[in-house]
UniProtKB/TrEMBL annotation:
Belongs to the CCC1 family. It is a multi-pass membrane protein. It is found in: Vacuole membrane. This is Vacuolar iron transporter. Pfam families: VIT1. Vacuolar Fe(2+) uptake transporter. It catalyses: Fe(2+)(in) = Fe(2+)(out). One of its GO terms (molecular function) is iron ion sequestering activity. It comes from Durio zibethinus. The chain crosses the membrane at residues 46-65, 77-95, 140-162, 169-190, 202-221. Keywords: Ion transport, Iron, Iron transport, Membrane, Transmembrane, Transmembrane helix, Transport, Vacuole. The keyword Glycoprotein does not apply. One of its GO terms (cellular component) is vacuolar membrane. Its main location: membrane.
Amino acid sequence: MAAPQTPQLSSLDNVEILSIHVNVTEKNQSQEPADNEFDYSQRGQWLRAAVLGANDGLVSVASLLMGVGSVKEDIKAMVIAGFAGLVAGACSMAIGEFVSVYTQRDIEIAQMKREKDKKSEIHENEEAGEKKQLPNPGQAAAASALAFSVGAVLPLLAAAFIREHKVRMAVVVVVASVALMVFGVVGALLGGTPVVKPSARVLVGGWMAMAITFGLTKLIGSDAMKN
């Protein structure tokens, strides 16, 4: 009686099995980094408030100092105006962010309630998870106010200790320019975005704000002093 013969795989079958094994392995390896990859969008809420606050504080106070300095050389006038701009701006940013984010939060909660009746019990667990991702008004307000103060204090300190008027104005521009570039780089790194374009964008925007404020204030202030 002949012994049963074991079927042998052809070379074509071996190639197909090896190809399937390689594809499965590559698929698993490609999925692993995606699972471990950091989601930069989680930083979006507080990062937006912090970057906006820092840039706004820096540009606002630096422009304010340039405007006052265009018509008055008195260092006290510049420092007092800059400090008033710092306090007023920080309060304004905090209140504005709080109201804005709370409005967004109310809209999202209302939308979730409208969709609640249309969802089954299976989706209710997903809804509970969505509530944890709702925007935090207090966090946004605090981040915005703190960032505004940090940005605003830089040109204010630069102007406070320099007596020579022209040198003081030049130092304010230089300090504001360097700080704008730093804020742009930090914001890009924290958000996982390219560095060059954000830095150039905030720098050019800051220069425009300071130049416009200086020019218009000097024009209006000079005409008012003549009268």
